[in-house]
């Protein structure tokens, strides 16, 4: 998010990062554990975006590539 705030055209250069990433980690999406149908549908959709390259294009657009994941994993925690 800091990277987006510093480089987004609509921010007008009002922000400046204080330093580099300390410990970047993969991004995650939280869902209700009871909604397993949604979990699997979302994982399948994300996996398709990763495979067809759209995921990388979106991350590049918003300049947030540092926390990118390489596959959609359910309950993959660190």
Structural class: mainly alpha
Biggest β-sheet strands, sense, barrel: none
Instruction: Give the averaged pLDDT, no decimals.
Output: 80
Q: Which regions are unreliable across 5 or more consecutive residues at pLDDT < 50?
A: none
The span between the termini is 20 Å
Describe the structure.
The relative contact order is 0.19. 40% of the residues lie in helices and 0% in strands. The radius of gyration is 15 Å and the shape is elongated. The protein is mostly helical and 78 residues long. The chain has a domain at 26-71.
Protein topology:
Blueprint lengths: L1 H6 L28 H17 L1 H8 L17
Features:
78 residues, elongated
Q: Could you write a compact summary of the structure shown?
A:
This protein has a domain at 26-71.
């Amino acid at each position: 998010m800091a990277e987006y705030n510093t480089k987004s055209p609509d921010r007008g250069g009002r922000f400046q990062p204080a330093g580099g990433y300390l410990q970047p980690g993969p991004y995650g999406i939280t869902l209700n554990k009871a909604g397993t149908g949604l979990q699997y549908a979302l994982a399948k959709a994300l996996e398709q975006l990763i495979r067809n390259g759209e995921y990388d294009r979106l991350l590049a657009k918003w300049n947030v590539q540092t926390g990118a994941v390489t596959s959609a994993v359910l309950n993959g925690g660190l």
